[in-house]
Specification:
Layout lengths: L1 E4 L2 E4 L1 E13 L10 H4 L9 H7 L8 H10 L16 E8 L2 H4 L3 E7 L2 E8 L3 H9 L13 H13 L5 E7 L3 H15 L2 H4 L11
Antiparallel strand pairs: 1-2, 3-4, 3-7, 5-6, 5-7
Protein name: GIY-YIG nuclease family protein
Organism: Ureibacillus thermophilus
Length: about 210
Amino acid sequence: MYVKINDQLYHFHRIRIELLDRNIREPYRFFDKKTIRELLQHQRYQYLREKVYSEYKEILDLPAGTALYHLKLNNDSFYKEFLNRYGDLVYCHFNVKGNESLLNKKGVYLIIMDDHIVFAVICNNKFKLRFNQHIGNVSPKACYRDGTATHCHINAKIADYYNDSNIYFQVCPLTDLEEMKLVKNWIIDRFEPLWNLRFGNDVIYSYN
């Protein structure tokens, strides 16, 4: 596959997804590196301080994951305030197979589902690292407000559609960040990938 932008051809290469596990739920509950009290010191959670200190004192010194899972088990939806909006979905675990030299490069990648581009984004790190360690394996911390909503969102989408659709990555190796932005933005403007559009305007993409 290739796209032509300003007389420049950009070639994309197909990368296969191999599903290892599915139906993964509530990974946030395993986050134990900070207590709720410690989380509340972070800017993303400061608006919750007053409510927690007045109504949830008993969870302040519990590991964050334990505290939130306890709230969920008690049907208290307040736990969701600590998570990003994709932080409590059903996930999968996958890795990618393909040309190792290609996977060790960075650039722009697409997600293709049934011959349609559904997601386009910059990867300013090795593709293999992004796919296998981040998107393909949602970490407990990724589920939180100061985690990585992108990884949760895309992983959950792949988990949802993998069985009934033909899903794979396409990667275009590039080294210049501005050129990556050019290609990504052109593709989004031209093809309007569904999973990009559903993010809305409140998501900040990570280039790392």
